[in-house]
Structure formats: structure tokens, C-alpha cells
Fold each of these.
Amino acid sequence: MSTVPDLPASGAKAGAATVVPAAASDARQAWRRLRRRPSAVISTSVLGLLVVLAVAAPLLAAAEGQDANTYHDALVDSARGGVPIGSFGGVSGDHWLGVEPGTGRDLFVRLLYGARVSLLVAVGATVVQVLIGIAVGLAAGLGNRLLDTVLSRFTDVMVALPMLVLAIALTAVVSADFPRPLLLILVIGLLNWGATSRIVRAQTLTLKQLDFVAAARLAGSGRWRVARRELLPSLAAPVITYAAILLPINMVIEASLSFLGVGVKPPTPSWGQMLSSAQTWFRADPMYVLLPAGMLFVTVLAFTALGDAVRAALDPREAVRLRVGTRASSRGRTARTARAAASEAAAAADLRKDTSS
Amino acid sequence: MTRYLLKRLGGAVLVLLVLSVAIYALFYLAPGDPARLACGDRCSTQQVEQVRRQLGLDESVYAQYAHFLQGIVTGRDYSTGTAVLHCDAPCLGFSYQTDQQVTALILDRLPATVSLAVGAMVIWLAVGVGTGLLSALRRGGITERALTLLTLAGTGTPVFILGLLLLMVVCAYLQWLPFPTYVPLTEDPEQWAWNMLLPWLTLGFFESAKYARLTRSSTLETLAEDHIRTFRAYGVGERAVVGRHALRGAVPPVIALSALDFGTVMGGAVITESLFNIPGIGKTLIDGVREIDLPVVVGVVLVIGAAVVLANVVADLLYAAADRRVVLH
């Protein structure tokens, strides 16, 4: 795709446009800009709550007095095919969010443990993607021409491959004994690092030309030291931005794979898997559809909103706008705001081009 | 132009070769014995060995891969000892489960996938571009805020949540439609359309959020350009400025992205197809994975890869055709 220079959906271009070496004060300013966005504050609070719930899942389960895998046959109506007894899917003092139809397992605890799986896979896969992306991108940007060509071609191939499809095929051939969450982290992480690597390479190529890097070189720093001390800090802004965009995407991929029955395996609870089994309970037990769907929707939305806010806060053009103090008026169609909008769409389009349909 | 095209197609072939090596390596490393899988549970050891020879699974992995490639280009023959089983080019082998040729199986599933892709694309273009334009032209108003929020919510949401909710409300509660079952267009066009309606809406709405964002930003970008200011200064009416000039800037990226997405959906919208039980390419893949039907998985992954890679080339060509400032090189 990168062969068309003007295509706005080209990640390399979006990255190259955001090059500004970040100093400590820049980081503090970005932080301040981030804190001033209501969407960032709200989404961070939601995600913070979710993380607390997920970490404290065993404690909360103990407080409720339930666990994730005990069947309660007495709580489902076997005459009606296993519909939970009681209103709202069997909500009671013992089962705060009701029970799973068919098995009678506690839904509150299963949702919490599902949150653990979702967060673990999303964060783990993002870490793998970012690490590989930085390693490959830096090597391509700093290496000789041959290395750059080989790595760039390889990245092109990785980006062109249909990711969800390969993930499905991969999960099918790995032995069933392999721990599934770890498998999902590796599969998603190893398949979807191309965009990050492109950004890092583009940034490295530009940064390499700048004076402070040349100065470090002249002062006698070796290639490795330059990469570590001079380039990595400047790469932080774009990498954080892309990581924030990747998180919700990875979470959706995990949920999709589990929904398709090739992700997390029972009895480990997962939201995608619950939604898959909920298909037979539309009419009889709507709560069983709405609860995991709501959890997944809110979490992904919070991550997406946070990613958006982080991107805007770390965008140097935004910084310029604030420093000069000219807030673009609501009808002011300045080139700057338009270009910011374009880079937003470019980032979104590039990363989302083959998300799970 | 010809040179560019050759270069791109060469690149596409390279990607497909890498994909085929990767998928073949997976196939080879997969747990379980392919000969045993092909033969079935009730086969004796002797029968399994016979199947192994017939399918050429006793050869080295390199020879197997070479034969696999050869089968795609020229077709190949499987000797059953007494008779010869011919598999036409492009031969992707035989399904373990049904003994059907994988190529025939895929062609058989193609119409359902095409039905889904075309309908969904109509919806995502209409809804996505419409919403994006509206939000670009109503900047700063409540309309824009509402639309921005809606598209943000739509961008991240997994497609199956939307599909499940539609199924639940429309089919289970309101009972406006029965739960969809696929009816081929050639059998009954009216039933085909009614049954495809929910899948179209689901996939169409899912994709349209992305198009709304893209249309909005590229329209804004064009409106900010100097020549638009000049038109306005000359007194060209707002309607003409937007309709004739701003749209011209908004259209190329939308076309390019549409080509990409059409390719992806043609390669099987795996989730939508399995949610609505549409017997398309994506459903074939997931069924193949569940039944450990390796030749089907390999074949479908290759076909999907080809669809996606070709869509990439077409997207770039269309982009260049729609925006003459772009130079292909």
C-alpha cells in the first residue's frame, strides 16, 4: 500500500508527519492536554474500575460466596430447557447478576474472570506487537540498505496477510495442551506488528538526520547507544499512540476468536465465548446476552476513546495550537485542524483495515 | 503503468507464496496424523498406510510442497492403486470430511459470500459517506457531536455484538423477520433478499463507522485547501463548492478503502457468516478448522489471501484513477 505516496491510509506517512523530538517538557504538556479531555478522564476511570474488578476477582467472588465453575442445577428450570429460575436471569442475594442458563454457574464471577482474560490477552498481545515493532523498525531504520529492504519487504508481507484468518488457522493447529490465553497473546502479537514497525522505521529515518543524533554520533556514541539513548525516547510518543489504538483492536480479536470457538476454551470464562453460547437464549434469558455484550462494548469503547484522546494529546500540531493560543473557531476550517482530522482517519484506517468483520 | 502493474502483481505473487509456505508449514506441524484424519477413525493401520501413499504424505515435506504448488498450476493425479483420481488445476486437494475437491467446494460457497459483500457495501457506502459528509458540513453543531460519538462507538464495537442485538430484537422479540437461513438468489430472489437483510445491515453498519470518519476528514481537508477559498471568493455558491469540488477530494480515499474492504469481505466475513449461518467462504474456513479438515483450511486461507492481496492492488489503481495528482511508481 505504501507505494502510493498520497494515499491517506498509509501509516508510514502519518508517522513521518508527526516527527518532533520529545523533550521532558513535551511529555508533561502532553499529560496536561490529556488530563483536560473529558473523554480521556471518563475512559480512564472506566478502565481503572475494570482493572480493579479484574484483579480483585477472587476477592469479590469470595465476598459473593461463589466461584466460576460450580454448577447449580437447582437454580435452572430443567423443564424449560435450563432457563434460570427467577427474574432477570435468576438475580438473587446469592447470585448478584444471576446464573448462566443451562448450567447455573454464577454469572457475576464468570464476567469478572472474563474481564481478566480479555485484559490479559489485549495487553499481552499489544506488548508483543510493540516490542517486535520497535525491534524490526529500529533495525530497518538504522541498518544498511540490504537489511532495510529485507525487513521492509517482510513487513509489507505481514501487513498484507489476512490477520484474523491466519489467527483462526494457527489456533487450530496448536496442540490443545498449550495454555490458550498465552497462545492468543502470541498469535495476535506475532501477526499484527507491521503497522508499528512501519511507524518506528519512518520515525527513525527522520530522526537519524536530526542534529541531536548527529551530535551524539560525533561525541563517540555507538549505533546501539544512539538507538537506546537518543532514538528510543523520541519514539515514545508515536509508539504510545499506536499502542493505545492497538489495545481495543486486540481485545476485539480475542473476543472474536473466542466467539468463533477457536479462542479461549471452556471452562475458562470469556466474554466472546459467553456471547456465542448466548445465541440460543435470546428469548428465554436476555440478560445472558446483554451482560457480556455490555461489558465488552463498554470496555472496547473506553479503550477506543482513550486511544483517540492519547493520539490527540501527543499530536505535536495540537501542541502548537495550544501554545499559540488560537483555538480553532467552530466554523474555522483551518488547514491545521483539517490535517489533524486527516491524520486521525489515516491512523484509524491503517490499523483497522482488516479488523474482524 | 504496465511496469507498475507488473511490479505490484509480482509483489502479490510473492505474498501468496510466503502465505502458502507458512500455511503449509502449519499443516505439516499440526498435531495428529493427516493420513489418519483423511482415512477416518475406523481405518486399520494398513488402510492408513495406503491412504498415506495415495495422498503422497510419505514423501519429504519439500516434495509435498512442490506437488502442492504443481497441483495449483497444472492439476495433479492421486493414484488409489486401482484407479487414478484426477484433480483439475487449480487443485487444492480433497476435503478429509466430504472427499469433495476443495476448489469445487470453494466455488460452491462463493455466491453466498458475494451476496453478503455486495449488499453490505451498498449500505456502508450510503450510510458511511452520508454520515461523514453531514458531520463535516455541520461542524460545531449538535449534529456533529452526536455523529462523532456514534461513529466512535461504532468504530470499536465488535461486529457480533451488533448482529446479536439485531437478531435478538428483530427476530426474537418483535418477530418482524424469521431467523435468517440462506436461500440462494437463483432459487428465490425475494426470500434471498429478506434473509440477507440482517447480515447486510450488520456488516454494513459495522463498516460504515470507518467510512464516516474517513469521509469527514477528507472532506474537511479538501475544504481547507486554497482553491476552495478561491472558489468562494469568486462567489461560487456553497452548494456547488461542496457538491462539485469538496466531494472530489473526499471520493478517492473512500473508493480505495472500499476496494480493500470488499476484498476482505469477499475473502469471507468469518464472523458475520458464522453468526447468520451463511454458507460462504468464511463459514467454510471456520467449519474446516473445527473439523480439522486441513486441506480445506489451507485452500481457503490461500483464496482469502489472494482476495485481500488483489484488493490491495485494485485499491491503489482506483485511487490513482480517481485522484490524478497521485503518481504510481
Note: Strands of chain B lie at 76-79, 84-87.
Amino acid sequence: MTTHASIANAATTDPMIVMADVEKWYGGFKALSDINLSVRRGEKIVLCGPSGSGKSTLIRCINHLEAYQKGEIRVGGTRLGDDSRTIDAIRREVGMVFQHFNLFPHMTVLQNCMLAPMRAAKMSRSEAEATARRLLDRVRILEQADKYPAQLSGGQQQRVAIARALCMRPSVMLFDEPTSALDPEMVKEVLDTMIGLAEEGMTMICVTHEMGFARQVADRVIFMAGGTIVEEAPPDAFFTQPRHERTRKFLGEILRPH
Amino acid sequence: MGLGEFLFLLTGLKWTVALSAIGFVCGSVGGLAIALLRTSGVRGLERLAAGYIALFQGTPLLMQLFVVYYGLALIGLHLSAWVAVSIGFTLHASAYLGEIWRGSIDAVPRGQTEAASALNLKYTSRMKDVVLPQAIRISLPATIGFLVQLIKGTSLASIVGFTELARAGNIVSNQIFEPLLVFGIVGILYFLMCWPLSLYGSHLENRLAVASR
């Protein structure tokens, strides 16, 4: 009985993503150093920090949009190398949403969502379409399925991008400043979609400056500066008693009333 | 000028169209290969493609035709003028189309490839489904511009004895001693092929400019 419990316990605390002593260089410039991060299944992480602090680079290393030079990254037990086999294995688990949506402009919303399931996951057309329609419905944009991205608002496009990533049934979602390119009135619809996803138990790493979202959703907030992790804490502690001077300065700047 | 002479010119026109079509179609296949090599990210292949483009953009088309026609004969390959100029134009068009499409592939925003990669699409699908459909749209005005150049360039095939429109005009002119009339008609025939294409090219360019606004 005891053994059972401890195995079950081990399974739930088994980290989904591990980054150990990761270093990333652009030529002679060190973009990331000493990155150590462990993310449990179902955990929500918010990454923040000044621009150029390496937060986007960090999440782009997780699905190998950027290669890293030192250390180790593991996703769901697979060690990410430079070979196509491990990259493929990890990208199957990891979905990503970009600042500028990056929808395919020559395809309709529905086609955007069906392409990868058919090509990369070898789903049948009917299965891919059913999946796409279900997920478009979930982000409340099904009625736009036959439109082209350019015909949608920024907020709508970003919700399509979320649905498109979800169609690949990822177990982790990476968000790279998903609301930074949006007009203010569209930020909420995207954040609401992300909150919904969080409530369903998705493992999420979000690069964002939406501190309201961080307070509401995050299990941990991580502050980065100069390519390193400066501070990490649960949101309450992070916002009320930041330990480091740089964190306080940063929070002072972004939380200052405008 | 009698009907016989005019029909002879039209026969020349037919070969001009045929040669342009062969150069363009085969050159498109070659050009796509060159463009893909040039953007492959593999340094050796990229240099190879860049060298090929530089060679064909840096030498006159006429010289390229000479080299293919006489050069291949020199190494024992005796080809008909027809085959030789087809090869010459294909090589020439491959270089130019390769460079045009290389530029168009580079003009597709990086985010498109990144999104496709993040969705675990492999190289073939990233290119075929995501990048090339957008690149081809971007490249259309320049591609049509090159097609016009190619049609006019086929007149150089007359030098190696290929009877296309320009050489047909030369022959007729030598028979009836009315060069101005004959070459006037030849010029009009070229113009009727090229001008609508140019108009179509600038129409597409305007439409693209509006679409990207």
C-alpha cells in the first residue's frame, strides 16, 4: 500500500520539463547562463523580465527553435539533442503560441488548424477536421473557421493560434508574449482563453508582462535579467516581498500606474 | 511581302514560343532546385548554388549558348541546335529563377517557418505547405518580368542556327529586300507577346502591394 502511494506520488511530482545548467550562446554573446528550472506536470509558470533578458530565448530552447550549447533539457523524460529524432519527440509534446500569431496567411482558419495534424500527426482529414472544429469551438471562434487570418482581429487570430497548437494535443504549452502585439481591448479575450486552459490542467510556461494573469494563474513567477534566473517565487511572495533589488526595480517599473 | 513569307514568320514565332516555354518550364524545375539549395542552411550546398547563380548572371546569354552548343560538341556530344539551345536556356533560366525565388523564400517572414517547426512539420511540409505558396505569390511580378526577358532572349538562339522568329525575319528580309517592313512585323510580334505579360506583371505587383497594406 505504502509502495503504491509513493509510486503514484512519484508520478505526479515527476517533472515535465527539466533544464539543468543550460547555456546558450549567439556567437560570442552569452544569451542564457546557468538556467536551472524544473516544471511539474500541470504547473503554470510565468516568466518575466526586461527585454533582452533571455526569457523568449529560454522557452524557444525548450522546443529547439534555438539550439543550446551546454547543459541539458529534458521534456517528459526525453533528453533534447540536436538530432531530428529527439526534436521530433519533444515537439510532439510541446505546443507554442507566438507574439505575432504566425498564422499561415494563405490558409483559412480551419486549414491552419488541420495542416499539422494531417502532415505531422498523420491524422485522417475527417479526424483532423473534427479535432480542429472542436478546438476552435473551445476558443469560441468556430464561426470564423472559413475565414482567412487577415480577416480576423488580433485577438481572434491569437485564439486561432492557440487552437492550432492544441490540435496537436500537446502536454505542454509555451506562450511567447501572447498579448504584447494586441490592442488593449483584445488582451482579455486571449488571457481568458489561457486561463481556461490553465484550469483544465495544462502545463504552461508563459512569457508575459500581464501581472494580473500571473497573480491569478501562476504557480510560480520567474524573473530573469541578463540571461539568468534572478528570482523565482509563488506570485504572492513575488509581488509582495521580492528578494532582489533588480526584481523590485522591475516590478516598480511595470506596476507603476500609468 | 506575300502570305508565304508571313506564314514563315509565324513558323518562327511558333519556335520562339516553344523555346520560351521549354526554357521557362525546365528552368522552373531547375530554379526551384537552385532556390532550395541556396536556402538549405547547408553551407556547401548554399555556396554551390550561389556559384551557379553568379556564373550565369555574370556572363552573357549568348556566350552561354555558344558554350553549350560548341562546347558539348567538343566533348563529343553532337546535339541538334534545338536540343542545345533548350539546354542553354534551361541552365540560364534556372539561375535567374533560382535567384528570384531565393529572394522570395527569404522574404517570407521567419515566424512562418518557426510556427511550422513548432507544430512539428518537417522540412518538406514546411516548404511545400507553408513557405513556397507564400514565396511564389511574392515572386510573381519578378518571375513574369524574367519570362519577358527570356522570350526576348530567345532571339539569340538564331546565332547558333536555330530558326526562331528573329532568324525567320532575317531569312525573309534577305529574300524580299524589305528589312524595315520585315523587322517591323517581327518587332510587333515580339511586342504582342511581351507587352500583355508585362501588364499582367504590374497588375499583380499592384495587387500584392494592396494585399500587404
Note: Strands of chain A lie at 15-26, 29-40, 44-48, 70-75, 78-79, 94-97, 172-176, 203-207, 220-225, 228-233.
